[in-house]
Specification:
Helix content: 40-55%
Number of domains: 4
Bound molecules: adenosine-5'-triphosphate, magnesium ion
Number of helices: 24
Shape: elongated
Largest sheet: 7 strands, mixed
CATH superfamily of the largest domain: Beta Polymerase, domain 2
CATH architecture of the largest domain: 2-Layer Sandwich
Radius of gyration: 28 Å
Strand order of the largest sheet: 3-4-5-2-1-8-9
Length: 463
């Protein structure tokens, strides 16, 4: 795995300034790993023996902006033109008991040979000297890159995983993104340490979960080899029981073999991996059947798992501190994922629903339907109901059908004037009736006809 490292002029200049102060600057982490794998690079983490104050001084003298990112931890962000580097002084950390990932004490050190052992995985602990291009590999990361293995930096993997519970999710995430295997000792330790994830903040758990759900988009691996694997690893390590106990309940829950190849949890995993790589869709797929065990226990069957699932989805996503938009979109999709399951709804029913839901939700629900059916059989089949929905939808678009009340050719104000009515919920009801009408008869979406329709609707209500 030989590779010429060639760094950009900004970084070389920085390394020369660091050398003037008697230290050597290294690139470390994802950029070294990915360069060696010929994968795209994201951020650049740099490191040296220089203490954070020296880094700040050196940058100030050279006219470079710095942003302290956690001076106690040795982190300084350096801005050179439009590039950004995160410099962390070589460290050796000691952690308090529990998995909360706040080093109890941070000792700066002078060598990558100590720094490497506070990092998580060997492939993340490779150091490339910016000036010479030489690689320093204190933990055997080059061999593991070759073998495509994720292994903790220390011989005793528990030492690493215990100090920061999140590392168990990072383990699953790197395995998923890179398509690497997990070294058996590391995997066994992950199973032991998984309960420590309970000490990790919801935000950090969320961020790693998102990366696993979107793992196919990182380096372009097929979703079966990345997303599906990542989810299965969360399950196999026991991380799932801690971060998503509602899903752990779905493990091994059998369902009708007439429609389903897999028990509930495996079905959920396949569905998620087989959905389009959009976060709201993947979250909805992840939670769409989460209520099946609850319903089964409550009623002896799974009916109503969509309505109950909406509640679970909302609770889980809020707990994981997803933003409101993600919570609402995903919960809505869970709520409606059973709509027209058999594909026998009338065209007019579909049209009224679609107009009320709007374009984005209609199409997203069709995507969920595809994923759900595909996740039931484990194949990328064509799905009849969603195909029909899309063709009905396309027809509506071609006919310039309004997809919201704001696309009607009249406003609430118009309706109030036409009917000589004060503002009241009645106006809203009339608007909804006009939209439902125009969903099926889009040619009636003009002011004169809407006026007559509004008058009819109001008259009908009076009678
Ligand atoms: P990518 O940026 O592609 O996700 P990366 O390896 O650069 O991958 P970062 O999260 O950017 O990952 O972290 C940079 C480096 O810092 C890692 O490679 C690793 O050496 C170290 N690191 C980051 N987070 C942790 C952690 N929780 N425990 C131990 N080491 C960590
Ligand atoms: Mg990085």
């Amino acid at each position: 795995m030989q590779k010429e490292f060639r760094f950009e002029p900004e970084l070389i200049r920085l390394a020369e300034l660091v050398r003037l102060r008697g230290a050597e600057l290294f690139v470390v982490g994802g950029r070294v790993r990915n360069s060696l794998l010929s994968l795209p690079l994201s951020d650049t983490d740099i490191t040296s023996a220089l203490r954070p104050e020296s880094v700040q001084e050196l940058c100030a003298e050279a006219g470079l902006k710095t942003v302290p990112k956690g001076i106690a931890y040795g982190m300084v962000e350096i801005h050179t033109g439009h590039k950004k580097y995160e410099h962390t002084t070589f460290r050796s950390d000691t952690y308090a008991a529990g998995g909360a990932h706040r080093p109890e004490s941070v000792a700066f050190s002078d060598s990558p040979y100590t720094d490497a052992f506070r990092r998580d995985f060997t492939v993340n602990a490779l150091y490339a000297s910016v000036l010479t291009g030489d690689i320093i590999d204190p933990t055997g990361g080059l061999d593991d890159l070759e073998a495509r293995l994720i292994r903790t930096t220390t011989g005793d993997p528990e030492l690493i995983l215990r100090d920061d519970g999140l590392r168990i999710m990072r383990l699953c995430r790197f395995a998923a993104e890179l398509g690497f295997d997990i070294e058996p000792g590391t995997f066994e330790a992950a199973k032991k340490c998984a309960p420590l994830l309970a000490d990790i903040s919801a935000e950090r758990v969320r961020d790693e979960l998102v990366k696993i759900l979107m793992a196919d988009t990182k380096y372009g691996l097929p979703a079966e080899e990345s997303v599906l694997r990542g989810l299965r690893l969360l399950d196999a390590t026991g991380a799932l029981d801690v971060i998503l106990p509602e899903l752990a309940e779905c493990r091994g829950v059998e369902q009708s073999p007439k429609f389903h190849k897999y028990p509930v949890l495996e079905h959920i995993f396949h569905t998620t991996a087989m959905s389009k790589p959009e976060l709201d869709l993947r979250l909805a797929c992840l939670l769409h059947d989460a209520a099946k065990p609850v319903m089964l226990e409550r009623n002896g069957n799974m009916h109503g798992h969509d309505a109950e699932g909406e509640l679970i989805a909302r609770e889980v996503l809020k707990r994981l501190r997803f933003d409101n938009a993600a919570v609402e979109e995903s919960a809505w999709l869970v709520r409606h994922h059973m709509f027209d399951l058999d594909g026998r709804a009338k065209d007019s029913t579909l049209k009224r629903r679609f107009a009320r839901w709007g374009r984005a939700r209609t199409l997203a629900l069709a995507d969920i339907r595809d994923a759900d059916f595909r996740g039931s059989v484990g194949e990328y089949i064509e799905v009849r109901s969603s195909q029909r929905w899309r063709s009905v939808f396309a027809g509506m678009e071609a006919a310039h059908t309004p997809f919201s009340e704001s696309e009607l050719a009249c406003t609430g104000q118009d309706i109030m004037e036409w009917l000589q009515l004060p503002p009241s919920p009645e106006i809203g009801r009339i608007k909804a009736a006009l939209l439902a009408h125009c969903a099926v008869r889009p040619q009636d979406n003009d002011p004169a006809r809407l006026r007559r329709l509004a008058q009819d609707a109001a008259g009908r209500r009076e009678r």
